[in-house]
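User: UvrD-like helicase ATP-binding domain-containing protein. Structure?
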Amino acid sequence: MTLTSDILEGLNPEQKEAVESIDGPLLIIAGPGSGKTRVITHRIAHLVRDYGVSPYRILSMTFTNKAAREMRDRLERLVGPRSESLTVGTFHSFCARFLRREGEPVGLSSSFSIYDADDQLSLIKRSLQMADLDPKQNPPQAIRSVISRAKSVMMDSRGLSQHGQSYFEEVSARVYHHYEELLSRNNAVDFDDLLMKSVQLLQEQLAVREKYQQRYQYLMVDEFQDTNVAQYRLAGL
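Assistant: Predicted structure:
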């Protein structure tokens, strides 16, 4: 199929080949600033304008709000008003919207709060008190980092307790347990939960998983090489 000229404009031969590769998985390997994000936007435009794919069927995820804004701006220029039906955003923004619609099976109402770094530290300090641990000997910021790393590999407090490789990780697991309880009590999540709970829900709820698999026929991930375990599993579901 012949691409419209403005979709091809400014692309080198390798980029054109990637844009025209429609069927099956495609991994683009290139250095920083080589135009990977541009290829994704032009590939989406190709699907919409030349293949007649409904924008509603396309999901594109990025790591930063800046990248998502740039992608949306480019797509608006390339496909016009139809770009409004595309799902383009960060992993976290997609998961937040997803959980507000579907989060009941993982214990979330649609009005859940998303805690920022300061909120998390406050909750960890309360969790330290509940675990009868001294925050001077167990710095809340360090515990927050341990919990975040655990969630990035889909590990809850029980998993961290079982697989912790140091005394500090064992202590952090005790705090993590209370931290989870407080988040649940407050109908709240942290940023790592957005990914972890989305993956858990999709793994456990077949009907929900099939619903989104049927909707999104095309998935694009910018900077895929930077995905952690939770993000990788989300993309694979």
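The longest strand covers residues 58-62. Strands lie at 58-62, 87-90, 113-115, 188-190, 218-221.
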